């Protein structure tokens, strides 16, 4: 190289030619190092998976997490649970403010403040639980249920005004994109009728929820449904959730074959497009201390869903997102009759009509 620079390029002094040669060598080495590092980062699969357990108020998310994950052989070594930080909402700061109570007492005054605090406590909890070693982190709810269910509901009820929802949305996306740990690898939707949730809520008697009505639970139910359960728009035939392609469906374990879907659609937040969801029927009242078989059946379904998502993530040729891109929209309804269906209908048109993600969920 030095000789080439001197004889062909016309650099007279040898030390000049040497320093140019060294400079080029170092730059090339630096570039190569960067390339290797970024390829390494891209190709290292994320080791631990996170699923978010979703469902209406008092459907039984906390019980499900505690009884299923901690008390079954199928999940004991696999799962670490992260319950929702409701206790933090009930006891804020030195003065022990109860912001959950303040919200229910004066929703118009406190909806924004409460939703803001809910988000912050989720970020803290995600950070605190990020060092775990078990292969699956099961979290109670996510920032997406906050946004797609509760924030939507309080906004529609005019408990959050236009300025407040704009402020919420102005930080939601940037913060979520900086903290990928907030984006679950899968969702588990515990599904039951609003009536059943209302009965369970009355039984557990959480002091702050004395004023929560059946209508409010119906509203929250519709929001969960239109987000996590397949339905068809009457006008356009658009599906919010896609069925798996046949070859994948066949590879699914029979325990979950009828209840795994991909989230997709215009109303879906971009960071959870194509994320798989497992829908579990939680309509029957199950006494987990007695019905060990029912508990194990749920545990098996969670374990199988974990295997499914993990396999897709580990196999670059069959990334969940890549496969989902090829899915043709088609109507999907659970066909083994196991799932509860509101009034015999799967499609909640009202849920779609009330959707307005034009500003909040681009
Ligand atoms: P949930 O998150 O539904 O939890 P839960 O413990 O009531 O449900 P489960 O029995 O299934 O474990 O709600 C907790 C309380 O917080 C409930 O009163 C609803 C309220 N809440 C909001 O108002 N906004 C929110 O964004 C969230 C996440 C909860
Ligand atoms: Mg709970």
From TrEMBL:
InterPro entries registered for this protein in UniProt: Deoxyribonucleoside_kinase, DNK_dom, P-loop_NTPase
Organism of origin: Actinidia chinensis var. chinensis
Pfam family, one: dNK
Protein name, as recorded: Deoxycytidine kinase
Lineage, opening ranks: Eukaryota, Viridiplantae, Streptophyta, Embryophyta, Tracheophyta
Keywords annotated in UniProt: Kinase, Transferase
PANTHER family membership: DEOXYADENOSINE KINASE, DEOXYNUCLEOSIDE KINASE
Cellular component aspect of the GO annotation: cytoplasm
Gene Ontology molecular function: any one: deoxynucleoside kinase activity
């Amino acid at each position: 190289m030095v000789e080439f620079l001197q004889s062909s390029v016309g650099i007279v002094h040898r030390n000049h030619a040497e320093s140019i040669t060294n400079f080029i060598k170092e730059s090339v080495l630096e570039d190569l190092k960067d390339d290797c590092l970024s390829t390494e980062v891209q190709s290292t699969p994320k080791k631990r998976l996170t699923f978010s357990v979703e469902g209406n108020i008092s459907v039984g998310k906390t019980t499900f997490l505690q009884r299923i994950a901690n008390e079954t052989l199928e999940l004991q070594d696999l799962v670490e649970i992260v319950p929702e930080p409701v206790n933090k909402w009930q006891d804020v700061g030195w003065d022990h403010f109860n912001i959950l109570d303040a919200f229910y007492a004066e929703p118009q005054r406190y909806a924004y403040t409460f939703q803001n605090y809910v988000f912050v406590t989720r970020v803290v909890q995600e950070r605190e639980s990020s060092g775990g070693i078990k292969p699956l982190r099961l979290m109670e709810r996510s920032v997406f249920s906050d946004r797609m269910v509760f924030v939507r509901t309080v906004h529609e009820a005019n408990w959050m005004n236009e300025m407040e929802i704009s402020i919420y949305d102005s930080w939601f996306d940037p913060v979520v994109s900086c903290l990928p740990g907030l984006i679950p690898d899968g969702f588990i939707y515990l599904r039951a009728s609003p009536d059943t949730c209302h009965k369970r809520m009355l039984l557990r008697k959480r002091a702050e929820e004395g004023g929560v009505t059946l209508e409010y639970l119906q509203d929250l139910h519709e929001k969960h449904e239109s987000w996590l359960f397949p339905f068809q728009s009457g006008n356009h035939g658009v599906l919010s959730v896609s069925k798996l392609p046949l070859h994948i469906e066949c590879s699914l374990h029979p325990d979950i074959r009828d209840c795994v879907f991909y989230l997709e659609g215009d109303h879906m937040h971009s960071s959870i497009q194509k994320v798989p969801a497992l829908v579990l029927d939680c309509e029957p009242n199950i006494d987990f201390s007695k019905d060990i078989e029912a508990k194990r059946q749920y545990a098996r379904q969670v374990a199988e869903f974990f295997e499914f998502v993990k396999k897709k993530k580990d196999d670059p040729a069959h990334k969940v997102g890549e496969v989902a891109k090829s899915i043709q929209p088609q109507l999907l309804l659970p066909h083994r009759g196991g799932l509860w269906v509101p009034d015999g209908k799967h499609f909640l048109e009202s849920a779609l009509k009330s959707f307005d993600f034009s500003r909040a969920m681009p």
